[in-house]
């Protein structure tokens, strides 16, 4: 792909898993239509994922009617166990969408003097 005058290439150290996508709406035990934009981190030996789930159909719009965030755990980062309920659910008109969940783990580095 060219943008301007340069060629864009993918990193040689990051590869998509052959089973991609590794999480689909069929894997979610509650209503799910679009499952995407996950944040993943490794914590205490397990992978933790928070993913966005847009769901529900509105007759007057192509956009889903609601959004929630799901929570899943994995030992290998490929096979995920989704929790039975969302970890965040839209409940009022003040906040009606959530985008791009991200996770981070606090890490300390000690530099000997």
Description:
- With 113 residues, the chain is mostly beta strands.
- The chain has a domain at 15-89.
- Helix content is 0%, strand content 33%.
- The chain has strands spanning 2-3, 6-7, 34-43, 46-55, 66-74, 81-82, 88-89.
- The strands form 2 sheets. Strands 3, 4, 5, 6 and 7 form a 5-stranded antiparallel β-sheet that branches. A two-stranded antiparallel ribbon has the order 1-2.
- Strand 3 and strand 4 (46-55) form a beta hairpin.
- It is globular, with a radius of gyration of 18 Å.
- The model has no long low-confidence stretch (mean pLDDT 85).
Relevant terms:
single chain; mainly beta; 7 strands
What is the 3D form?
Answer: globular
Task: Give the termini distance in whole angstroms.
Answer: 47 Å
Number of strands: 7
Strand content: 25-35%
Unreliably modeled segments: none
The helix/strand series, from N terminus to C terminus, equals EEEEEEE
Number of helices: 0
Most strands sheet: 5 strands, antiparallel
Structural class: mainly beta
Helix content: under 10%
Rg over CA atoms, rounded to whole Å, is 18 Å
Average pLDDT reading? 85
